[in-house]
């Protein structure tokens, strides 16, 4: 792929990469740094990209690997509580999209629940459900078999449902 | 809609797609990434009057003899330039910061306006390290900001914030400090530097703390300043 074409196509995935970066880092400033680092690395290693394969998935893979290498530290990872989910304060974002009060509350609950799922489960869930990547692509990004990805997504959803019940999300309770 | 994973009604997936807010890239990030993707923008184009064969030959020779090694050195040169600029700022701060100590905090709005860097939050000091000055400056032909700190032993620490260009910070030489992993350089002329990126800006902290113990203090200073300072690139 020509450099210009590569750059043009790479830029198309900026919003999606930033979105995942925000949910990975839980910090707007670090998310921006992570995305920049991802692009610098993608450009540096662009000769390794195989034309015809999925550029979007390749860039997600770089982003996640960069996050794991430089941004995630054990001490930053919230400790697991008794219920097997992370404890800790609510995430802080600086530029939350404008929303009405009720939906914002629901979003915060959903964000809060998502944040309490370990990264290994949260990332494949987001890649498959939010970004619409195939399970094969997700498996490549996560560097694990497709079966593992399926299992992690299933468990992530299961845990998310439980957490949303804990949060008392209206309409999410099972009818008696 | 059914879930491709468990073949059950995909309520959770639907909820995620419909209710989870998306975070599109802010404009400043888009600009920074475009700069990173197009580093050659603005360079002079090759002359058009050359016959095509000669132009191709010339281009090939240039590539082999000059451009390729130059490209390999480009990032290194940028890093060297940043290092020299930060050390120069350190020298200026040592010479003149005392006479300008009265500039803070009144000077900050003007410094932000002139430097193109907004400080949403800034570390103003504690028992170990005090912010004593802030001045607009120029790094690599671009407006930048220099914050001057002094520790309780009289060491000057300068924090230079530059809107660009994007510098790929090499992995070799990075160190883990708290939750960050910046580049730590020890210069041969008695300075230590810490280089990192923050909110699309290139940041360099320079000090004359070079012994093993002093570098440990320098790292602590970095962690304090980095944790308490929030930046925005204005243009």
Poorly predicted sequence stretches spanning 5 or more consecutive residues of chain B? 40-50, 64-73
Shape of chain B: globular
* Strands of chain A, total number: 0
Write down the Rg of chain A.
17 Å
* Strand composition percent of chain B: 15-25%
Number of separate helices of chain A = 8
Taken in chain order, the helices and strands of chain B follow as: HHHHEEEEEEEHE
N-to-C terminal Cα separation of chain A, in Å? 57 Å
Radius of gyration of chain B, in angstroms, nearest whole number: 23 Å
Task: Summarize the main sheet of chain B.
Answer: 6 strands, antiparallel
Widest β-sheet, arrangement of strands of chain B: 2-3-4-7-6-5
Q: Runs of chain A with pLDDT <50, length 5+?
A: 73-103, 170-176
Most extensive protein-chain contact, per-chain counts:
A-B, 51 and 39 residues
Tell me the structural class of chain B. alpha+beta
Q: Please state roughly what percent of the residues of chain A sit in beta strands, choosing from under 5%, 5-15%, 15-25%, 25-35%, 35-45% or over 45%.
A: under 5%
> If helices are DSSP runs of H or I spanning 4 or more residues, what is the number of helices of chain B?
5
In percent, how helical is the residue content of chain A?
A: 55-70%
Largest sheet of chain A: none
Return the average pLDDT of chain A rounded to an integer. Answer: 75
Quick recap of the structure?
The complex is a heterodimer of chains A (176) and B (235). Chain A has eight helices and no strands.
Describe it for me?
The complex is a heterodimer of chains A (176) and B (235). Chain A has helices spanning 3-11, 14-25, 28-44, 55-71, 101-115, 119-130, 135-142, 146-167. Chain A is mostly helical and 176 residues long. The two termini of chain B are 45 Å apart. Mean pLDDT of chain B is 77; it is low at 40-50 and 64-73. Chain B is of the alpha+beta class and 235 residues long. Helices cover 38% and strands 23% of the residues of chain B. The relative contact order of chain B is 0.13. The interface between A and B is large, with 51 and 39 residues.
